[in-house]
Write a structure and sequence with these properties.
Blueprint lengths: L4 E4 L5 H10 L3 E5 L11 H10 L5 E6 L4 H11 L3 E4 L5 H10 L4 E7 L4 H9 L5 E5 L19 H10 L4 E3 L8 H8 L3 E4 L4 E2 L2 E2 L1 H17 L1
Parallel strand pairs: 1-2, 1-8, 2-3, 3-4, 4-5, 5-6, 6-7, 7-8
Antiparallel strand pairs: 9-10
Helix pairs in contact: 3-4, 5-6, 7-8
């Protein structure tokens, strides 16, 4: 079994980015403006972190925008390696993003709430390079688009992994204590964490190291 990739999300600044990379992160998650949830930072900071992210480490711009032209303009300001789309966008928007942002990978978030999420993931997989399974709720008056700290039904997540041919990241309530079980049950390409490696909102080096160690241990046990 190949090593499970590690995405550290809600990176606040260049110092946190460096800490995450030194601990073994494969992906840095950089959160732009959201209707709710933690971790949002200014686009200028996202751009600086993305520019300084070392080769071999990906930078994901988390965006709640759904208009193709706005997404393209935002990415050109931030210059990350990937766009993480936390809300649904029209199919035509995927096509325009592909045309205008060649070489930039597209990651669609699926908020796993029930078995309908399987159909959503299969449909999205036609248009993107990867899927990220999270525990938000897009039907609320103020949408939850990530960072809830809640675990969803890993049984549904496992079915999604088995049903699509592109990489799947697993997020939602992960920590050093449960990530091994999550990897064993879901078998994701990667895992994604925000609040589980933070103390009082700040990236915690001890929790970060424990999480990376737990992911690596799960890989050895597979």
């Amino acid at each position: 079994m190949s090593r499970t990739r590690i995405k550290i999300c809600c990176i606040a600044n260049e110092a946190e980015a460096a800490l995450a990379v030194s601990a073994g992160a494969d992906v840095l998650g950089l959160v732009s403006a959201m209707p709710s949830g933690p971790g949002a930072i200014e686009e200028a900071i996202i751009g600086r972190v993305a520019k300084r992210t070392p080769p071999g480490v990906s930078s994901f711009l988390l965006t709640s925008l759904v208009n193709a032209d706005e997404l393209i303009a935002q990415h050109r300001r931030c210059r990350t390696t990937s766009l993480q789309l936390v809300d649904w966008i029209p199919v035509s928007a995927y096509e325009k993003l592909r045309k205008e942002l060649p070489g930039i990978s597209l990651v669609q978030v699926i908020h796993v709430r029930n078995h309908d999420s399987l159909d959503d993931a299969i449909a999205a997989a036609e248009h993107v390079d990867a899927i990220l399974l999270d525990s938000g709720n897009t039907s609320l008056a103020v949408k939850e688009l990530g960072g809830t700290g809640r675990v969803h039904d890993w049984g549904i997540s496992r079915r999604i992994v088995e049903s699509v041919s592109i990489p799947v990241y697993l997020a939602g309530g992960l920590n050093a204590g449960n990530v091994g079980e999550a990897i064993a049950k879901v078998k994701p390409f990667g895992v994604d964490i925000c609040s589980g490696v933070r103390t009082n909102g700040k990236l915690d080096a001890q929790k970060l190291r424990a999480f990376v160690a737990a992911v690596d241990a799960a890989g050895r046990a597979a």
